[in-house]
Amino acid sequence: MKNMFRTRVFSVAIVVIIAAVLSACSQTEVAKRSTLTLQTTGLEALANGFHYEGWAIVDGAPVTTGKFNVKEGGLVDLNGAAISDFKVDVDISNASAIVLTIEPSGDTDTIPADTHVLAGDLTNGASSLTAGHKDALGNDFTSAAGKFILATPTTESTDDELSGVWFIDLSSGSPAAALNLPELPKGWEYEGWVVIDGAPVTTGRFTSASGPDDAAPFSGPADAPPFPGEDFVANDARFPTSLVGNTVVISIEPEADDSAAPFAFKPLAGPSPTDATTKVSYSLGQNLDSFPTASATVVYE
Question: Domain ranges in the chain?
């Protein structure tokens, strides 16, 4: 009888252990499944195979939540089908933040690119994503300011002085940097633009307002001043052309860029007045409403 009793107790114990193990496995599987819902405003479509990717930051490490693009203001998968929810098959229940990046064409790795577009802390399964978060651009650009002048320092002619734009401040009597912009994180650069005939034309990319930009495709043969800017006087049938009445813009661009057009981040913009004259400083205004935002909700199934 004792042996029979022990056998029954042992059998019951095994059943209890198995049930506990199955229950734990079931709970683990549930914890590993979640749904991330994204809603974005102002996020632009990426071209040439570039795409966005979401990341959950879990214990300081990134976990992908899925790749996507934008079409007509809505999210689409890489085949162009409309989506809003992303099924995540790993445990992100302890995630502290959600980050959106721009990834290059053909990207297959599990490491976020340097171009962090938006980010936000995740609290109680919800997150508001902005460019100003420390895991994105890290600045809200509310202190951004700038000026520009019209001049063509790379030509000897005085007839084309309204055909160049330079981000220079002459108020002190000597040329000085005219842009007050924060240092950008890795993966991003500034770029100047002028809207000519309704289309934006670059003045060149730069990382410092106190140095030259990286290109001079339309300038003349003379040396340019050591500041961002461009003379629109050569290498295009339209040039020289007066920039009076046109819009001047500063954008923030991903280093690995998908497009020749300006990106959504345009912190400064302003018109060249219709009565503009050469070598007079004109102000750029803040254009922070151009910055995209997003909200994320995580539901643990």
Answer: 34-138+292-300, 145-290
The rounded distance, in Å, linking the Cα atoms of 237 and 213 is 23
Q: What's the predicted TM-score (pTM) here?
A: 0.88
CA distances from 251 to 82, 167, 195, 206, 265 (A): 29, 13, 13, 10, 6
- In the beta sheet, which residues pair with residue 269? 249, 285
Q: Is the pLDDT of residue 5 over 80?
A: no
Question: Residue 281 burial by CB count (10 A; 0-12/13-18/19+): exposed, middle or buried?
Answer: middle
The pLDDT of residue 26 is 41
pLDDT for the residue numbered 301? 78
Whether 149 contacts 280, CB under 8 Å:
yes
pLDDT at 300: 87
d(CA 232, CA 220): 8
Tokens of 196: 């000519």
Number of Cβ within 10 Å of residue 247's Cβ equals 15
- Give me the phi and psi of 119, to 5 degrees please: -155, 160
